[in-house]
Amino acid sequence: MIFLVTVGIAVNMAKVKFEEILKRLEDIVERIENGDLSLDETLSEYENGVKLYKKCVSLLDDAEKKIQVLVKDEEGTLHIKDFDGAAAKGNEIE
């Protein structure tokens, strides 16, 4: 049996930042796709888009690290594990 446990406040703050960055990235894509920009402007916007993309990936990685999984073993003891499956030390729950 697996339960997801999240750190609510931290995840919500990361989500807002992520949403803002994603919106800015979508705006850049729209401006580039419209084709009204010069080559220099397009390259500059592309570079900004790559930076925003990397920030989005970083925020998603950070959020994933904050998610822990609650797992019950064969004896019925609950353990908290990191999202990637590595057991967190000293987090046995009785």
Q: How far is the first residue's CA from the last residue's CA?
A: 15 Å
Shape: rod-shaped
* Number of beta-strand segments: 4
Provide the residue-averaged pLDDT: 78
Number of discrete helical segments = 2
Structural class: alpha+beta
Main sheet summary: 4 strands, antiparallel
Radius of gyration over alpha carbons?
20 Å
Main β-sheet, spatial strand arrangement: 1-2-3-4
Strand percent estimate: 15-25%
Secondary-structure element order, as H and E?
A: EHHEEE
Textual characterization of the structure:
The chain has 94 residues and is of the alpha+beta class. The chain is 59% helix and 22% strand. The protein has helices at residues 8-34, 39-66; strands at residues 2-5, 68-72, 78-82, 87-93. The chain has a four-stranded antiparallel sheet with strand order 1-2-3-4. Strand 2 (68-72) and strand 3 form a beta hairpin. The two termini are 15 Å apart. Residues 2-11 have low confidence and may be disordered.
